[in-house]
Structure formats: structure tokens, C-alpha cells
Write a structure and sequence with these properties.
The complex is a heterodimer of chains A (about 325) and B (about 450). Chain A has about 325 residues and is α/β, with parallel strands linked by helices. Chain A contains 11 helices and 10 strands. Chain A has one domain: TIM Barrel (Alpha-Beta Barrel), CATH 3.20.20. An 8-stranded parallel β-sheet of chain A has the order 8-7-6-5-4-3-10-9. Chain A has a two-stranded antiparallel sheet with strand order 1-2. The longest helix of chain A has 19 residues. The model of chain A has no long low-confidence stretch (mean pLDDT about 95). Chain B is α/β, with parallel strands linked by helices and about 450 residues long. Chain B has 3 domains: about 55 residues, Orthogonal Bundle (3-methyladenine DNA Glycosylase II, Chain A, domain 3), CATH 1.10.15.40; about 250 residues, TIM Barrel, CATH 3.20.20; about 130 residues, 3-Layer(aba) Sandwich (Rossmann fold). In chain B, helix 1 crosses helix 2, helix 4 packs parallel to helix 5 and helix 5 runs parallel beside helix 6. The chains are: A alpha/beta (about 325), B alpha/beta (about 450). Bound molecules: cobalamin (B12) and iron/sulfur cluster (SF4). Cobalamin sits at the interface of chains B and A.
Amino acid sequence: MPITVEIPKEKWAGKVREVVLGATAADGGTRAKTVVVGGEATLPFLHFDGAIPHPPALAIEVRDRRPDDWSPLVYEAWGEAMNDPAEWAKAAEKAGADLIVLTLSLTTADRKPNTPENAKAVVRKVLNATGLPLAVFGPGQAEKDNELIVPVAEEAKGEKLLLGVCEDKNYRTIVATAMANGHNVSSKTPMDVNLAKQLVILIHDMGMPLDRIIMDPTTGALAYGIEYGYSVMERLRLAALQGDSMTQQPMIVTPGEETWKAKESKVGEGVPETWGDWKRRAINWETLTAASLIHAGADAVVLRHPETLARVKAMVNGLMSAN
Amino acid sequence: MALTGLQIYKLLPQTNCKECGHPTCLAFAMKLAAKQAELALCPYVTESAKAQLDAASAPPIRLVAVSCNGSKVEAGNETVLFRHEKTFYHKPGLFIRVEDTLGAEGIKTKVSEADSYLVDYVGIKLGVDGFAVEAVSGDGAKFAEAVGAVRAASKKPLILIAPTPEVMAEGVKAASGTQPLLCAADESNWQKMAEIAKSAKAPLAVKAESLDKLAGLTEEIKKAGVEDIVLDPLAYGYGDSLKTLTQIRRLALKKNFRALGYPIIAFPSNGAGVDETVLAAQHIAKYAGFIVLNTFDPATLYPLLVLRQNIYTDPQKPIQVQPGLYEINSPTADSPLMVTTNFSITYFAVNNEVEGSGWPAWLLVADAEGMSVLTAWAAGKFDADRIAKAVKSTGAEGKINHKRLILPGQVAVLSGELEESLAGWEIMVGPKEAVDIPNYLKVMWGEKAGSR
Ligand code: B12
Ligand code: SF4
């Protein structure tokens, strides 16, 4: 005898804000298309509880020059394209990326300090090479970030870039230039609900509209801290749905960067046999980290390997098309 | 769901006779609700009240065990939807599917390999939990043979997958002496399947394509005398499995809906166009109790096992190692002295590299309250003071004939202060990542000490 089961539904008070990345000609930019992240009124992919207007965006990280210390597997995947950020971005677009994350390096290919001129030129080149929306992140040192991001923001005025990285010790300059030039910002804090919220408040207090802030709550790789990142994201998302306004920003995380630092991905030799085939293991490392974080609420994930991108994309399609 | 004190009070005799050692029945009820007293203390409670109280105190998701030769996989008895609310308790069992059409040799090879697989993750040995033998042939004798072949190659717990009660009965015979999970009863055969499960004292999985039917079936089966039930909601895609498993967990925890208060079995390779590894990852995070994998491949199993470990750690307690001075590769007085924190992941990352390099070394593990190098540094738990204290308190000084301490590269900034705290010491800054330690030792220590 079947029993009529009444499915308990959640009635959430809040929802995630939508942030538009990129601008087409109609909006004063040059992108072929824009990407909207966020907007969901439910926990990840629980369509029966609420609407999920946009799938999580899958980004590929591209460097302004060939990086020195990435895993040989990633070099193998992109090949020659890694010598030229424009080619690399094109290859990423072809591989199915929704978004390009361009990270600027401390130094140029010839080991000289990176310069505003170089940064501008690279950004222009990448914008010309692809129609995808673009994120541009500094090398992660306050002074250098500011030195490079400000001219980039001016150069790409109107393109609605995502600029980063804003951290509690260094966000004012980047936020100011993003506001002046019509860009979005990424607000990054180390794995803590309150810190995430607080930095969003500080950035908003400067006058940045909330629909132009994405937050990066930081993640760790599988086996290297994912359990913290995963739960911080779940908690942030629950807070957002419960109506806590300053946690309602879409979330971006960087599983690519985190996992390819891990020995499991980086190294093929001299590791235990029980780790299995290097390439499959490494790509699984990135794929499972990204897949888990998407289930925890990520609205954008930044990846490095094209095969990961393909696998995560298939998963996202499955999760979005369901009922 | 637990009853409130008032609800319990209504079930008590309400005579306030004090024999339970409490002044009133209400006081006793309050203690019961707080789980600070045992119902047995009241001699007058009626059988029916007892049954109601027992039922109410049963966990919302039944704990179901599958066992064999003393090894056991338990699933269920979870209490939260999100791990941060408390923790997840029973890791989903990872079972490798073995088809009975594989032939005796094929089975032996596949099972032996998977059975002996053990991988080390921060000092914890992780492996496959058992095997799911499937009667693909539809032939009872063949199925029994396959079960026998699996048992000859492994002592781990079994799941028996058979299409009909007749075939299942053969498999159960071949698995006698163990407690396998029988998979699965459905609308058409549940009476007979339940009979088999009952006489074998084995848990029974139940499948149906809607939750309404599934709930109906579990109730019938329970009435037929089988209490250890596992649910197979036949949800095979990324989206429907997330939806369905979440709904079942919610019903059990939020509504105390007994008919679906059981662990779930998932088959991440049964759906068309899904990636088994990716869907298994979802199942680990989102609510499966048993997961049956088609493929045995260390390159996918290792990440899945680690993910399971990560999701099922108590979010309030980082895994730690004992602070102290550790010896690696039998160090002597000239061997290098390195310092790190007592976060397990950190300790093992460093230990494994040094050990693998063959270098003898002293590894000083400072008490950083179980935090990684940078986290501890940022939280003020891994500073010059603490490190200097660790050097003194562990007697590291007395073990070596040099005064050099190698710092993790991530906290290079500490070297100045440390030189002050440890007068007469040379503070060397090591590499940022543990992978680079062997090379660093070769170049930097080899040069300094000229020996190894
Ligand atoms: C997981 C994590 C946490 C977890 C804690 C996990 C734990 N038990 O430690 C939680 C969420 C609790 C946390 C909290 C905080 N965190 Co935290 N956290 C991380 C994260 C994501 C990963 C850390 C990790 O586990 N790494 C893996 C381990 C194995 O790395 P490791 O210990 O450094 O060891 C490696 C090397 O150092 C080397 N090594 C280790 N020992 C030795 C020894 C020698 C001799 C040598 C040569 C090498 C060596 O080998 C290892 C492998 O290569 C990092 C960011 C990141 N991705 O790195 C931030 C990070 C460390 N956290 C940070 C901060 C600021 C904090 C907080 C202060 C913020 C807050 N939320 O309040 C708190 C502090 C804790 C507190 N007050 O209680 C910052 C530190 C910034 C800085 N440079 O100061 C980081 C870098 C994030 C960031 N980018 O801002 N954090
Ligand atoms: S022994 Fe039973 S009846 Fe007597 S006071 Fe206690 S609860 Fe009430």
C-alpha cells in the first residue's frame, strides 16, 4: 500500500543576489556574452524548494605568462597555448569555459617585475582574443596588486570585469577603481563566515553596490582543508537563504589553484602505488574538489585542467536539468 | 524524534509515588527527556507506554549493519542535514560490484586486488569496505558460485544483488555465516524476499520508483518482521539523486517519518551519461549509506576515500598528532632538526617527505592546537615563543650537536624573532612546500653538515 509522503519544503526568507559579469556592446563593453552568477532561492539544485535561475559558472584560470611551477599535467593539457595568454584564453573558451580568470604574475617572462603597461597590454590582448567575460586578479601582494589592477580597471572600463583580490588588508584601492570604471569585485576572506560578511560590509560601505560584489570564502583542496571550506560555504549559503543580507553574495572559489598545489596532483613519481594512475588521480582531485564545492553552494569555480572542466560541466548540466 | 518532558509525563502513571527516586512523575519525565535517567527506574510504567517511549527514542534513521567475519559496515543513525550542525557519524560503505558472469578467475583477480587495497591518509589506513555480488546471469547456481568465489578471496562484508527471491536464496546459502545486505525487494516480490531476509537475519534493501511506494513497502516489510531495512529509491542521475536523497533525509530528521527512516543504498554508475566518480562524490556528501562502485581503480578510489574521510571528520575537532620530538630514519646528533605544527595533515606531509627521502632527521612537532602552519601562525599559536619553548621542553637540544633549526618556508618571517628567543641558534628557512624538502636537505644541509 503506497503511503502518501508529504515532502517537507523549505520556505526561505532570502535569496542570493545576482551579479552580472561582462558587458556586451549594448552595455558599453565588447563581450560576446555575459554571465550571471547567483540568484538562487534555494540550497544547491534543490529545485523543488526554489528557483535556480543560473548554473554555476565554470572558469578557467589563465596566467599573463607561462607559470613556472604548475603540474606537468596542466602544461601537457594546454601545450603551446600557455606561452600566450590570448591563445590560452581562446583554448579555454573552446574547451567550454564560461569565464576566464586572468591572474597577473609578480614578474614577466623575462623575470623582470611586472608593470602596469604589461598588465594593460595582456588584458587588452585577452579581451580581443575571447568573447567571454573576464576576471582579472593581481598576484596577491597588496602593493603589486594595486599597482597592476588600477591601470587594468581603467584600460578595460565598461567591460564589467571581476577584479580581485580584495582582502581585509587591501581592498580600498581595488574597490575604488572598480567603482570608478564599472567593474565588479571579488571579496576574499580566509574560511570564516563572519570575516566573509564583514569584508562585504566594508566594501559596500565604500559605496560599492551589492550586486557588484562576489565573495570568495576560500577553500582548501581535497585532503588539504576542504572540510573547512565546504562547511563555511554551506553555512554562508544557509545564512543567505535565512535572510542575512550581507551573506547574500554569490560565491566564487578556486579549487584549481588549491588542488594543483597538492602532491597528489603535482607529482607522478615516487608516490605510493596505492595512489593509482597519476593523470586520472590528479584530474579526479580537482574534479571532486570542485564538484563538492558546487554542492556546498559555489556559484563560480575556477579550474585549471580542461578535462576537469568537461566533467564538472556534465555534472552541472545534470543538476540543472533535473525537475 | 525525542519527546518533550510533558509528552513523556502523559505516559507515566502520574501517581508521584517517588519510587524512581524523583519527587514527582513530572520531575522524572524531565530527567528522561534530558536523557539523565533510565525508564527502568519506574516500576509502574505500562507496557504500552514503554513501547511508545522506546519507539520515540529510536534514532530517526535506523542503524543498519552488514557484517562478515567480524568486520562490519554500519550506516544510518545520522542526526543532522549539515555536517557543521554536529557531525556525520557513519561513513557510507564503499562496495565494489562483482558480476557473477565474470567467471571464477575473473572474480578472484578483481576481488583479491580490491580486497588487499589499503592507502594511507594522514596515518589512517583506508580501503574498500566490501563487495556487491550481482546475479547478472539470473541463474541461482551461478550466483552461489560467484558468492563462494568472492568469499574465497575476501573476508569483507557482502551485498547480494539478485533479481528474484529464488536466485537470492541461492546466494544467501552461499553467504551463510555472514550478514549480507540483500538487494532488493520490490513491489512484486517483497513477501518472499522478506522471508529470506528474516530467516537469514540479514538486512533487506527495498526499491521503488516513488517515495510513496517506497514508504508503503517498508511498512509492509517491517510488519512482516524485517526491521533492518535499506532504501533504494532508484534515483540515478545527478539531479534526481540529490533531490531524492535530500528529501528522504529531511523526512527522517525533520518529520521523524519512520517509513523512510533508513539508510540509503546508491549505485552511481547505474544512470545513463553519469560519471560514476563524480556522482559517488555527491553520494558521500549528500546522504548515501552504502555506495556500490562498478570500477575498482585506485586513482578514483583514493580521492573518494579521502573525500569521505574529510566530510565525516568532526568539524569541531581538527585531527591532531601528539606534540613532541619525532625521529625519522634513525637520526643521529648531526642530523637536521626541523619544526612543524601538530595538525595531522601538516605533520604527515612533512614526515612522509623526509621519510621518503631517506634523510635521517629530528622533527619537532610544536603544540599549535592542531592547526596548519599558516593558520596557526595567523592565530598566534605558532610563534617564536612557542617554538623556542618546544625546543627546550622536548630536550631537542640535548640530542643534537649543532644549533640549527629549520623553519617551514611559510613562516620565514619568524626567523628574526626566533634568533632572539633561541640565543646562539642559527635559524634556517626551509622550503614553502613539503615536496621540496628532500631537495632542500640535499643542497642546504648536505652542504652545511657534509654528511647524511
Ligand atoms: C584550512 C584552513 C583553516 C582551517 C584550520 C585548519 C587547521 N586545522 O589548521 C580554519 C577554517 C579553522 C582556519 C582558520 C583560520 N585561518 Co586559515 N586557512 C586554511 C587553509 C585553507 C588551508 C590550511 C591547510 O590546511 N593547509 C595544508 C597544510 C598541510 O599546510 P601547512 O601546514 O602549511 O604545511 C605545508 C607547508 O607549510 C610545509 N611544511 C609544514 N611544516 C613544515 C616544516 C618544515 C621544516 C618545512 C620546510 C616545510 C613545512 O609542508 C606542508 C605541505 O606542503 C589556508 C589557505 C591555504 N589554501 O593554504 C588558510 C590560511 C592559512 N588561514 C588564514 C587565516 C588568516 C585564518 C584565521 C586567522 C582567519 C579566521 N578565520 O579567523 C583563522 C585562524 C584560526 C583560529 N583563530 O582559530 C590565512 C593565513 C594568512 C596569513 N598568511 O597570515 C590563510 C593562508 C588563508 C588566506 N589566504 O588568508 N583556516
Ligand atoms: S516511580 Fe513512576 S510512578 Fe512513581 S514517581 Fe516515579 S515515575 Fe511516577
